[in-house]
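idk why but the lab printer keeps eating my pages so im just putting this in chat instead. protein + N-(3-carboxypropanoyl)-L-norvaline:
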Amino acid sequence: MKHYLNIDDLEDVNSTIQEAIKLKRHPYKNSKLGRNKTLVMLFFNSSLRTRLSTEKAAKNLGMQVITLNANETWNLEFENGTIMNAGTSEHIKEAAQVISQYADIIAVRAFPTLKDKMEDESEFILNNFVAHATVPIVNMESSTAHPLQALTDAITIEELKPKARPKVVLSWAPHPKALPHAVANSFVEIMQELDVDFSITHPKGYELDPKTTKDIPINYNQEEAMKDADFVYAKNWSSYSDYGKVISQDTSWMITKEKSGNAKFMHCLPARRNVIVEDAVLDNDNSAVIKQANNRTFAAQVVLKRILEKL
Ligand code: SN0
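predcted complex ->
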């Protein structure tokens, strides 16, 4: 693998899941692969799991890790030909090449603004790193994709599925803030690669990009959609058609124990308790969120391993 920008960069999702599960059993087996290689992680936004699990994955492979909070460095300019006499101090053209002098792999987290759909969909931060860095780039959540989380979710479903073809439901849940579509998009994409009975439930007006959801069934009745589910994956996202807007805060969409029944509960975290999901679900043995957080390490490890093998 050269870059890991979205799940299409995985040649074969199922064999990647199996390899990640093997790495989980033997995390230090490839601890010489990353010797004398450096991962630079660049965060334009907050992170807990991504930051710690990706560092741990890199260290399991013997890599060195340098982490930079992008808001503590120079304000970067991404436009071509700008007269840089205002707020930005350094152009991405130099910055990406400079970071490449110190890094063998660069990982980037850069959320969307949720103001301008075209600008967000251009993935200008991630793609400018791809264009100007001279080393592979790993997406640690961009405007439209979170492929490390999706791989984690697929690993978790593989480990916990009670039958060969489990029923998986992605449910929108309320949130006070406008959140990105990235986690939902990548989850929808990876579910299309697995042998699962997959459907989506959300209020009207919360349709994701139809280019991503294709012909996946959408049910506007959450209770009906979640009936007999083996996995309920909760996530909030802002409207896609009324781009970036919070158009509903309908608390009846919160995931409750009553609605989720015996389904395993999944969420990428952080999850706002008693807004997205009630305490009784998160504090129940059916909650898979901590297992998901653990699996972040092995999703990152299999991705870094495959990139290191091609360096
Ligand atoms: C991010 C998102 O994409 O939804 C990151 C998830 C991995 N989530 C948030 O920004 C939640 C912030 C909050 O205040 O609850």
